[in-house]
């Protein structure tokens, strides 16, 4: 078909979609769009559905290709710990807050991450590490069936070929 296939961009901060359009036997067109009004089927949120969509758009007919089409696939996933917001954290012990009126609780100094360190007497700073980001990469593999894609989607990050762990540092550093 000449209609483009839209698949969701896996970035929770945007409502974005990548479009892929078959332009004949050799060429394809790729583009991005934000906030498409139609609902994305749940099936396209999984690798198995994306594999089937890819085959339906790019395998023109069963007479053009052998019965089994092999698809090369690699995957990169990024896991990120949620940033800890110290400004909205309850900073005092429960025993201390019971004896202090609510109006005075807000004026109490915040407990810092380094309060129990030796240098806390003369220096204290905001925690520069806001969280961690783990990027896992699975190398290129060849798949023939959609159910194989479902198995890869459910694979443990321990099975990834390479890992990259890095801290998320405060932008004020």
Outline of this structure?
The termini are far apart. Helix content is 17%, strand content 29%. The longest helix is centred in the N-terminal third of the chain and has 12 residues.
Describe the structure.
- By secondary structure, the protein is α+β, with helices and mostly antiparallel strands.
- The protein has a domain at 64-173.
- The protein is 17% helix and 29% strand.
- It has four helices and six strands.
- The chain has helices at residues 47-58, 94-99, 102-105, 146-153, and strands spanning 5-8, 16-22, 28-34, 71-80, 129-143, 162-169.
- The strands form two sheets. A three-stranded antiparallel sheet has the order 1-2-3, with helices on one face. It has a three-stranded antiparallel sheet with strand order 4-5-6.
- A hairpin with a 5-residue loop joins β2 (16-22) and β3 (28-34).
- α1 packs antiparallel against α4.
- The longest helix is centred in the N-terminal third of the chain and has 12 residues, at 47-58.
- It is elongated and about 70 Å long.
- Residues 90-95 have low confidence and may be disordered.
Shape: elongated
Low-confidence stretches: 90-95
- Total DSSP E strands: 6
| CA-CA gap between termini | 51 Å
Instruction: Give the strand content.
Output: 25-35%
What is the share of helical residues? 10-25%
How many DSSP H or I helices? 4
Strand order of the largest sheet: 1-2-3
Largest beta-sheet characterization: 3 strands, antiparallel
Overall average pLDDT: 74
Q: Which value, in Å, is the CA radius of gyration?
A: 25 Å
Find the structural class using helix and strand composition.
alpha+beta
Order of helices and strands: EEEHEHHEHE
GO molecular function: GTPase activator activity
InterPro entries: Rab3GAP1
Region (Disordered): 84-111
